[in-house]
Design a protein that fits this description.
Layout (H helix, E strand, L loop, with lengths): L2 H13 L4 E2 L2 E2 L15 H30 L6 H6 L1 H21 L3 H23 L18 E5 L9 H11 L3 E4 L4 H7 L1 H6 L2 E6 L4 E6 L5 E4 L8 E6 L6 E6 L9 H13 L4 E6 L4 H4 L4 E2 L2 E3 H4 L21 E5 L3 E8 L13 E7 L2
Parallel strand pairs: 3-4, 9-10
Antiparallel strand pairs: 1-2, 3-15, 4-6, 5-6, 7-8, 8-9, 10-13, 11-12, 12-13, 14-15
Length: about 375
C-alpha cells in the first residue's frame, strides 16, 4: 500500500467517528440536526404557547358573548355579567397581548385569531354605545306634562350623602316619588321632614328594609305592607287610590362570590309583587341581565330597556359610567310606560358610591 493511500485511509477513519491520529483519540462530532431530534423541542413549545393563547382568547370571547344570556344568576359569573363591559375590555386587552405573542413567535394563525377577537370586542362595545343614553344634569331636568309621574331614586349609603344635597336634588328634579333604598325612615323623618312638608309628601319606611319612600299626597294616601317581604329586601307601599300605582320599594341584598341564594330569594319576592298597576323602584344589586334574560321583573319591564337604551352604570362611581354596572332600576307594570330614564351626572363626589336615577312615566293607553 502506498503512502498516499495510507493517508487517505487514516483521514477517512477519523471522519467516520473514531480512531486515533498520531496516538491521540479523536471524538466523533454530532451529526446534523434533524426535525425529529433534540433541537425541535423549542419549536414545539413555541407552537404550543401560540395555540394555547389563541384558544384561550377565542374561549374568553365566546364566554363574554354568551354570559348575559346563560350565566346571570350563577356565583362568580354573576359579577362578570354585571360588569360585562369591563369584562369585554379585559378580553380585548388579552387578545392584544396574544397578538403580540403571535407576532413574536411568527404564528400567523395566532395573530389572525387575536385580530378577530379584538374586532368582535370592538363591535360588542360599539352596539351598546350606539344606544347608550348620556348622563343627565339634575339642574337641566325639565318639567313634564300633566298626568305624568316623576320618579327619583338614589342609594345614598345612609348618611354618606349630606341631607342638604338630597334636598337640593329633590328640588331640582321635582319628583312625585322619591326612593332612597339605603336611608332609614327614622333618619328621613328628621333630615327630610322640612322638604317633605314643603312638597306635601308622605314619608314611609320599614325598619327591616333600610329604605325610605317619599310620595306626593296628590297620589292619595299610602300604607306599608311587608307581610311577605324577606328581611332587608324592601316593602310594598299600597295606595288608597286605586288609580295610583302600588310601589315595590327594593334594596335587594347583594350576592356574594360563592352564593346567590339570598339575592334570588329577594328578587323572586320583588318579581311576585310587580304586577298590574305597579312600579318596582330601587337598588336591585343586579343588572337586568342578572335579573332575567328577558330583562323583565315578573309582570314589569325595565324602563331603560323599554326605551331602547343602554344606560350609564349606576355603581360604583369610581368607574366611568360606560364601565360600571346599572343596578338601580325603575320597572313599570302594564298600566305605565316610561317616557324618560336617566342616570344623573355631577354627584359622583357627593359621598355615595351610587349614581341617582330619574324617570318620567305616563299612563299606558
Amino acid at each position: 500500500m502506498t503512502l498516499g493511500r495510507l493517508c487517505c485511509v487514516g483521514q477517512s477513519s477519523v471522519r467516520q467517528g473514531g480512531g486515533e491520529t498520531d496516538g491521540v483519540p479523536v471524538t466523533a462530532q454530532p451529526g446534523p440536526v434533524t426535525r425529529h431530534g433534540w433541537s425541535s423541542r423549542p419549536g414545539r413549545a413555541r407552537n404550543a404557547v401560540a395555540t394555547a393563547s389563541a384558544v384561550i382568547a377565542a374561549a374568553l370571547l365566546i364566554m363574554a358573548l354568551l354570559l348575559p344570556h346563560v350565566g346571570g344568576r350563577l356565583p362568580v359569573l354573576f359579577l362578570l355579567v354585571a360588569f360585562h363591559a369591563l369584562f369585554l375590555l379585559c378580553v380585548g386587552a388579552f387578545a392584544v397581548v396574544v397578538g403580540i405573542v403571535g407576532a413574536a413567535l411568527r404564528s400567523r394563525w395566532t395573530m389572525i385569531v387575536a385580530v378577530v377577537v379584538v374586532i368582535a370586542v370592538g363591535v360588542a362595545f360599539a352596539v351598546p354605545a350606539s344606544v347608550r343614553s348620556p348622563g343627565a344634569d339634575p339642574a337641566q331636568i325639565t318639567a313634564s306634562g300633566k298626568g305624568t309621574l316623576r320618579v327619583l331614586e338614589w342609594n345614598t349609603d345612609q348618611q354618606d350623602v349630606d341631607a342638604t344635597t338630597i334636598r337640593t336634588l329633590i328640588a331640582q328634579t321635582d319628583p312625585d316619588i322619591v326612593v332612597l333604598p339605603e336611608y332609614f325612615e327614622q333618619i328621613a323623618r328628621g333630615s327630610l321632614a322640612e322638604i317633605a312638608k314643603q312638597r306635601d309628601m308622605q314619608v314611609l319606611g320599614w325598619d327591616s328594609s333600610a329604605s325610605t319612600l317619599l310620595v306626593a299626597r296628590s297620589l292619595g294616601g299610602y300604607s306599608v305592607d311587608h307581610r311577605d317581604a324577606p328581611a332587608w329586601a324592601g316593602f310594598v307601599a299600597v295606595p288608597t287610590n286605586p288609580t295610583s300605582p302600588r310601589l315595590v320599594i327594593t334594596h335587594l341584598q347583594r350576592p356574594d362570590i360563592t352564593s346567590t341564594a339570598r339575592w334570588r330569594e329577594h328578587v323572586t319576592w320583588a318579581a311576585n309583587q310587580c304586577r298590574g298597576n305597579s312600579l318596582a323602584v330601587g337598588d336591585f344589586n343586579a343588572t337586568v341581565d342578572n335579573i332575567s334574560p328577558s330583562r323583565t321583573l315578573g309582570g314589569c319591564v325595565d324602563s331603560a330597556t323599554a326605551l331602547g337604551q343602554d344606560p350609564q352604570g349606576t355603581w360604583p362611581t369610581v368607574l366611568p359610567g360606560s364601565l360600571g354596572a346599572t343596578i338601580d332600576h325603575v320597572f313599570t307594570g302594564p298600566s305605565w310606560k316610561p317616557a324618560v330614564f336617566s342616570v344623573l351626572d355631577g354627584l359622583d363626589r357627593a359621598g355615595s358610591d351610587h349614581r341617582p336615577t330619574f324617570a318620567v312615566l305616563t299612563r299606558a293607553a
